[in-house]
Amino acid sequence: MERTKILVTGGAGYIGSHAVVELYEAGFQPVIVDDFSNSQESSVRGIEDILGVRVACHHIDCGDAEALRAIFAEEGSLRGVIHFAAFKAVGESVQKPLAYYQNNVGSLLTLLTVMQEFGVPHLVFSSSCTVYGVPDVLPVTELTPRKPANSPYGNTKKICEDIITDVVHAPASTVRAILLRYFNPIGAHASAKIGELPLGVPQNLVPFVTQTAAGIREKLTIYGNTYDTPDGTNIRDYVHVVDLAKAHVTAVQRLLDGAGEAVETFNVGTGRGNSVLEVVQAFERATGVKLNYVIGEPRAGDVPAIYADVTKSVQELGFQTTTSLEDSLASAWKWQQTL
């Protein structure tokens, strides 16, 4: 039986690589597009080691319309796209807003244009809980008002959501879309062949934790301990990357089945919030490794606390996370030890 082809932009990245594995294992034929500006070729080898098959991988920038058209023509019979490709560091986006707007919004415009030209109807978009800004009420549901974003990164996700919604609702549109707003992905594949591979200094908490535990970093800096939270540190909803990848497979299948509305939004998280200090303590419990950490200044663009209400994802998308915080952190440590 022929597999249904799904294009995965940013498919060599952290979340993208895990989604490629889950897509293939669910019976799809993933096709990777990645410019490797924030990922490495080794992740493609890791994917192929896990699956035992070669996966089509095109080394292009998906903001390059001609290159993208060539891929759509060469691959043929694409039935959908999962769009991960984007710059993603909140702090960096405050420093380089133009680069973020150009890359994140520009690549989406190009992708949607080419999808319409080739009649590819289904899009799963990698969105973010940053669209909620600093929420008034926790946990956030999909109906929580989107507030002014705390960073250019968050604003690009809001703008992209609006663009997709407008395109889907255009009279002659053939595109249907699911917007997945995810919370904080952590952990690695059980095989430890793929995981989070930050280039340079990590922007996310868990790689900083594992690099500190491994002695690569002298100490972990916790950005602020005077937030209005029980222990003063930021609270986030930490979701295992394989659980998150599976949510994309579920979303693709929902689109192919023609279920739901023409454009839908789902939170992908655990439904629980954990503080930075709780993550540090959970890591120490899961691994037996003590962490050297210090308290630093709060970071621009960080919101004090956010975590998901996942009722809609469970009831309508049929998706629920299964991996505990400790198990997620143990998998991240196993991955770090193989690097």
For the structure shown, list the relevant keywords:
17% strand; 339 residues; alpha/beta; Rossmann fold
What is the strand and helix layout of this fold?
Elements (H helix, E strand, L loop, with lengths): L3 E6 L4 H12 L2 E6 L7 H11 L5 E2 L6 H11 L2 E6 L6 H6 L1 H22 L3 E7 L23 H18 L6 E7 L1 E3 L18 H9 L6 E4 L11 E2 L1 E3 H16 L6 E6 L5 E2 H12 L5 E4 L14 H7 L7 H14 L1
Parallel strand pairs: 1-2, 1-4, 2-3, 4-5, 5-6, 6-11, 7-10, 8-13
Antiparallel strand pairs: 9-12
The average pLDDT is: 96
Number of helices: 11
| Uncertain ranges | none
Output the CATH homologous superfamily of the domain at 4-186 and 238-269 and 308-322: NAD(P)-binding Rossmann-like Domain
Tell me the distance between the termini: 37 Å
What does the largest sheet look like?
7 strands, parallel
Structure explained in plain terms:
The chain is 41% helix and 17% strand. The protein is of the alpha/beta class and 339 residues long. The chain has a domain at 4-186 and 238-269 and 308-322: NAD(P)-binding Rossmann-like Domain (Rossmann fold, 3-Layer(aba) Sandwich). The strands form four sheets. The chain has a seven-stranded parallel sheet, with helices on both faces. It has a two-stranded parallel ribbon with strand order 7-10. The protein has a two-stranded parallel sheet with strand order 8-13. Helix 5 (97-118) runs parallel beside helix 6 (152-169). The radius of gyration is 19 Å and the shape is globular. The two termini are 37 Å apart. Pathway: Carbohydrate metabolism; galactose metabolism. Its EC number is 5.1.3.2. It is an enzyme of class 5 (isomerase). It comes from Hymenobacter guriensis.
